[in-house]
Design goal:
Structural class: alpha/beta
Distance between the termini: 19 Å
Shape: globular
Number of helices: 12
Strand content: 15-25%
Length: 271
């Protein structure tokens, strides 16, 4: 498998130092909505551009759509959070190599009245079983995002057929995390969300975190260079420069330093 590391980019260093690179070179990063909605990318990307002169243009969609876009050659780098799907993307030759970047976790939020009686729990499967038993309203992204993939995995572990419940107590928004939380807030529904988006979300209403701390709620993010052998338009040198920065000391420090209301939203764990 072809890899792209710093050594392979020796020729790019000259280009990076030339006037033609600064202010003109850009890459497209297909990423998940949580990196955008949380404010992380707005916080860290200026530092990368200052260091390299490379502009990053972000397409923030659900992970499934981001992977589809990258498979079609729309983008240079993929930054998402559905590790099995990411590994398949690489195994099928669409990506060069996958790197861990950072993590946080998912939490189950819901109305303070808590009709399913799950508040204070730490077992996501037990909690979802209770929600289904109570037929309490649940707002799902329903968009093949990383969050939606994780949610479906937990419903499956609970033995709940949410497809059969679709349109009744189980509502699929087909939207990003922010809009789904808005809908959940408006209808006093439960929802699974990544913690970073929850912290940044302003319209919490009566919603609160009810279930957290289950190891199965771990949320890993990965970054992949789109394979230029599949799509010659991919800006491999600039894309790998971004990856090397993101998983290197400067990028990892920038991720660790991003906080809202005194809370760290993402935890770097590049190897």
């Amino acid at each position: 498998m072809k890899t792209w590391g710093c050594a392979a980019l020796a020729g790019a260093i000259i280009s990076m130092c030339s006037p033609s690179w600064a202010g003109e070179e850009f890459i497209v990063v297909q990423s998940t909505t949580s990196t955008q909605n949380s404010g992380l990318l707005d916080a860290i990307l200026p530092g990368f551009q200052d260091d390299t002169g490379i502009e990053v243009r972000v397409v923030a969609v659900g992970t499934g759509q981001a992977i589809k876009n990258a498979t079609q050659g729309d983008g240079d780098v993929l930054l998402v959070h559905a590790k099995p799907a990411e590994e398949t993307f690489v195994a099928e030759g669409w990506g060069v190599q996958r790197f861990d970047v950072m993590y946080n976790d998912f939490v189950l939020v819901g109305p303070g009245a808590d009709p399913a009686g799950i508040k204070g729990g730490s077992d996501i499967v037990t909690a979802l079983t209770a929600v289904a038993t109570a037929q309490a309203p649940f707002a799902s992204r329903g968009d093949d995002s990383g969050t939606h993939k994780a949610e479906l995995r937990h419903w499956g572990a609970a033995g709940v057929d949410v497809a059969a419940a679709s349109g009744s107590w189980y509502r699929e928004t087909g939207s990003g995390m922010g809009r789904t939380l808005n809908i959940a807030s408006g209808m006093d529904a439960y929802a699974l969300t990544d913690r970073a988006t929850w912290i940044a979300f302003a319209n919490k209403g009566d919603l609160e975190i009810l279930v957290q701390g289950d190891t199965r709620l771990f949320n890993q993010y990965g970054v992949i260079l789109v394979n230029p052998d599949k799509h010659p338009s991919v800006k491999a040198q600039a894309g790998q420069t971004f990856i090397d920065w993101l998983i290197g000391p400067d990028g990892q420090a920038a991720i660790a330093g991003y906080q809202l209301d005194g809370q760290q939203l993402f935890f770097p764990n590049a190897k």
